[in-house]
Amino acid sequence: MRSLRCTIPTNPFLKILTFFILQTLPLITQTKILTLPLKSQVISSGYLPRPPNKLRFHHNVSLTVSITVGTPPQNVSLVIDTGSELSWLHCNNNTTTNRVSQNPFFNPNSSSSYKPISCSSSTCTTRTRDFPIPASCDSNNLCHATLSYADFSSSEGNLASDSFGFGGSDNPGTVFGCMKSSVSTNSDGDFNTTGLMGMNLGSLSLVSQLKIPKFSYCISGSDLSGILLLGGSNFSWVGSLNYTPLLRISIPLPYFDRAAYTVRLIGIKVSEKLLNLSNDMLAPDHTGAGQTMFDLGTQFTFLLGPVYSVLREEFLNQTNSTLRVLDNSDFVFQEAMDLCYRVPLNQSKLPELSSVSLVFEGSEMKVSGDQLLYRVPNRVLGNDSVYCFTFGNSDLLGVESFIIGHHQQQNMWMEFDLVQSRVGLAHVRCDLVGQKVLGMV
């Protein structure tokens, strides 16, 4: 069975995104600021594992960060994903391959602190309850995990523990998936990151394992710099945060992801016009379908079909005089974004657009300007480029959720307060926030 390897696609719109991580975890005796490279790169289908009710996508732009794992430490590159639980690495026991690879696999044989987890341990029998596919026992009596992929591909391996290094602090005994085999239905299924950093509310996510009481991030929409804070923060210059409570449901429901960062969506506005949407259209039903979640591992935002249709019609009406609609019903970007426009190649700036605001209980996220349209790479029609509305129809993906991706979260201070079970939002210039944090070093 072929190992899942990684290669970065050559693409002109890929940019480097630098995160500055401020750690104030209880296990750290001194506040430290570490600058880590985080890349924004195209991820093809079949790369990120998704539970059945999560987003299926053709390709996506994801955020990656470099940390160390093992003793002695090995450098690994991980996709940051607040929508996934289990952190995992592509494991390869071939020392020579790891040494010459630009983005090395993790070699468990080279780590003295690596420990496989038995299938009889409580970690395997209890803490894997939210896995999309239950953990099992392999022939060596080790805890076996199978991750389901977006295009019916899969990746398999064992649960293990090792030391995860963040900014000079080691976190021994961190549980992760050591993935050694894969089945891919995608001919382009070669990728170059070492794995994924799970940051949701599941018991095996890094947030839960490291007992992080609060974390925040801020992604710039200009130069793609940003900051990620693990632990508490009290920066007065961020401004006042507006909080919305996290929605928790303890009982299992078929379409509700209990480990996701779920909030209540109570309305949507185009400019200042509140759309005619009933509560039943925005709230989860008795099956859990219709939850609204923040997902850093997804690029754009996807709404359930009936809600998306209302938003699409209003945005189309308000931009009719300023934008030329792409008249091609067969073209759908990322399988779910069907409202696209033709913009002349020689037009350096988009016209003024009507903003879109997602209204939550207690807070609001306003999306405006260039965040509303995304230029489709390598798509030119005559003398026009193609831009698509950055909200899509989740029904076209077979998804029963509202998913708010990281594109709409740009220039937002996003604070996830797990102690008080709430999410704080504030509109800020994330590039300026990054400069202030740098000034604290």
UniProtKB/TrEMBL annotation:
MF annotations from Gene Ontology: aspartic-type endopeptidase activity
Name under which the protein is recorded: Peptidase A1 domain-containing protein
Pfam families the record matches: TAXi_C, TAXi_N
Lineage, highest ranks first: Eukaryota, Viridiplantae, Streptophyta, Embryophyta, Tracheophyta
Organism: Vicia faba (Broad bean)
Family: Belongs to the peptidase A1 family.
Stored PROSITE patterns: ASP_PROTEASE, PEPTIDASE_A1
Keyword Protease: yes
Domain Peptidase A1: 63-426
GO BP annotations listed: proteolysis
Keyword Transcription set for record: no
Residues passing through the membrane, by range: none
Record-annotated active site: D81, D295
Keyword annotations: Aspartyl protease, Glycoprotein, Hydrolase, Protease
Superkingdom of origin organism: Eukaryota
